[in-house]
Amino acid sequence: MANETGDRAFTEPSIMGSTPEMVFAGATSFARRKYTRDLTDAEVVISGVPWDCSTTYRPGTRLGPRAIRAASANLCFGKVWPWNIDPFDHLGVIDWGDIAFNEGYRDTMSANVEAYARQVVAGGRKTLTIGGDHYIALPMLRAIAAHYGPVALVHFDAHSDTWEDDYEHHGTMFLTAIEEGLIDVERSVQVGLRTFNESDSGITVFTAPWVHDNGPDAVASVIKERVGEGAAYLSFDIDCLDPVFAPGTGTPVCGGLSMYQAQSILYRLGGIDFVGMDIVEVSPPFDHAEVTALAAATLGLDWLCLLAANKLGMATPNPYQGGSGVVTVKT
């Protein structure tokens, strides 16, 4: 039954559960979660970082958090296929809102994002951060590594973001993270790469052609083996997807993953101790019919389902089954 009062992000007293609303109206919190900065019962905290001053090509990602939240309203109908659970029945999830900073000042943005993240992860809470360009991952990792120590990076992208340059931007921050000891290189993986880098960071790489040739199951199996049991951070640059599936991004590269491949890999990552995720590089001015924002919102929701499934001890979801668990294709 729909919530006739609307604006559940403001009107609902509890942070648990889901109540469908009109998808075309109301407050655009992520997945209609309650807007609050009360961390008392929160297990996952969602925030936006509207930043695009570290881009090297097309800007516009400062508008990404708003677009992704708006797209997420179309996904909030209770149980999520193929997980067949409502993650919000099992996880306390809030939307903190956007992190404020003086626009155009990277140091201010970085300091404010890191301070926010340190506050959130101090209580063992997990973070879902919506960008914004990919540079925002660096202050997030600084805060997370301060709490957990070096983490495994599971990085979906068309680009390695480990380039050496004479200034910092959204293509250098993971090299900085390695140099600062924030990432455990031996446990880290990059998925979907299809651009050239002269240097080798030591991270295991699955290029996009390798994914195409070997499939999601092979990729996920190696990721789980590589990451192991320690804390891990998932960073998803939307340009990992082929521009057919994500045109609204600053540096699109042809030959990327399909949405099916990305989701199929994510479905299979159950058991990994993910302590945070970011979804970055959605640039609404270059989007078409909001498909890029919808892809990002869907990946974020799938990650929340993964956390809920881990909490419940559920097995990997079976996309070949319908909502009742009945096989939908007869042989």
Brief description of this entry?
With 331 residues, the protein is an alpha/beta fold.
Structural notes for this entry:
By secondary structure, the protein is an alpha/beta fold. It has a single domain, classed as Arginase, Chain A (3-Layer(aba) Sandwich). It is built from 9 helices and 9 strands. It has a 9-stranded parallel β-sheet, with helices on both faces. Helix 8 packs parallel to helix 9. The longest helix is centred in the last third of the chain and has 22 residues. The radius of gyration is 18 Å and the shape is globular. The mean pLDDT is 91.
Judged by helices, strands and strand pairing, the structural class is alpha/beta
The radius of gyration is: 18 Å
User: Average pLDDT value?
Assistant: 91
Characterize the overall form: globular
Q: Cα distance, first to last residue? A: 37 Å
Looking at how many chains there are and whether they match, the oligomeric state comes to: single chain
CATH homology superfamily name: Ureohydrolase domain
Topology:
Layout: H1 8-11, E1 34-35, E2 44-49, H2 64-72, E3 93-98, H3 106-121, E4 126-131, H4 137-148, E5 152-156, H5 173-179, E6 189-193, E7 204-207, H6 208-214, H7 216-227, E8 231-237, H8 259-267, E9 273-280, H9 291-312
Parallel strand pairs: 1-3, 2-3, 2-4, 4-9, 5-6, 5-8, 6-7, 8-9
Helix pairs in contact: 2-9, 3-4, 4-5, 7-8, 8-9
